[in-house]
Structures are given as structure tokens and as C-alpha cells.
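2024-03-11 09:14:02 DEBUG pipeline.ingest accepted 1 chain
2024-03-11 09:14:02 DEBUG pipeline.ingest length=191
2024-03-11 09:14:03 DEBUG pipeline.predict start
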Amino acid sequence: MILKIFIIGPGGILCYSKNFFEQIEIDEGIISGFLTAISDFAREIKGGEIKALIFRNFKFIYSYSTEYNCIFVITINKDDLEEEARVKVEMMKNEFIKTYKPYLEHWTGNVSVFRNFDTFIEENIFIPPKILLVGEKGVGKTTIMDLFPGETIIELDDNLVETIQKPFEFVDFKEIKECIIRENWELTDAL
């Protein structure tokens, strides 16, 4: 699950950040300075670009635009798949450059122009939390799913294993706007 996003411009200036879940308040300027400094350090010692920084509880996944001297970072939980986040960080980088290319080409340090990037991030980058219902056949997993609003989606994989999924939106939560509930018949056999 993506926790936080940072887009750092030339000179280590934080252009854009998005926090998906309330956490302890931290100074984003310090974090962007750290992410920039560690990246500059890696290049200085000829280590190349940093692809990821892994901490005990989370990972920073990096991508770069050398043309515009920008760093794009997605923070994920330590157990999340890095490949999924890497696809998202590349998508974010490409859209940011496409949308703000004139501002990046004539960089003035004005970061207020990037505020409207929220719409793209919320619609394309955020990965909603998933709840997995597991249990023996006939114990009520489908009944529980039916209690939630939204359209039920049934998928079959290559082995004809059925996965039932229902995305639904939260109305009264500040940070979480969507969640996905999944029911998978095969998982109970594996447990």
C-alpha cells in the first residue's frame, strides 16, 4: 500500500507530496532533503542511482528524470511488492513531466503550480487497501461481501480459480477513500 509520495525538483526543493494515511507529523522538507542528499551521495561515490531505500517498516522507491533534475519517490510498506510500486512511480513521473514540462523547462522554484496534481495521484496512483475473506466453503464469506455496497466482480485465473472482488468507497474517512474486499476459494485449501 502506498503511504506517501514525494516529487523533488532541482536543488532538492519539494515540489509535491501526498500523504495517504495519517501518520506522525514530520517535516517534509527534512525528508526531501534527506532523499536528495542520499541520492547525491550515491552519484558522488559512483554508485549510480538509488533504486530503493529499505527501512524496518517501509521502503522508498525511487525514479529519476535526469533531463529535468527531478526525483520521484513512493513510500510503501516494507512487505509490499516493489514491482507494483515501481510501475506506479514510473507512471507518476511520466504524467508529471508531461503535465508540467513548461514549468520544469523554465524552473523558477514556484511549487504552487503543482498543487493540482492531486487529481491524477488519487485516480491513478493510490492503491486501495485490500481485505481478504478466508474460510471454509459455506461459512458466510459471500454473505459478508453482500453487506457492502458496490458491484461484485468475479474473475477466473488461468487455473479456473474463482476470485470474487468488490471495491467500495468510504464516505466519512479522511484519508482512505476506497477499499477492495476479496474472496478466494483456493486460499482456504492452502491454509
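2024-03-11 09:14:41 DEBUG pipeline.report Residues 82-105 form the longest helix (24 residues).
2024-03-11 09:14:41 DEBUG pipeline.predict end
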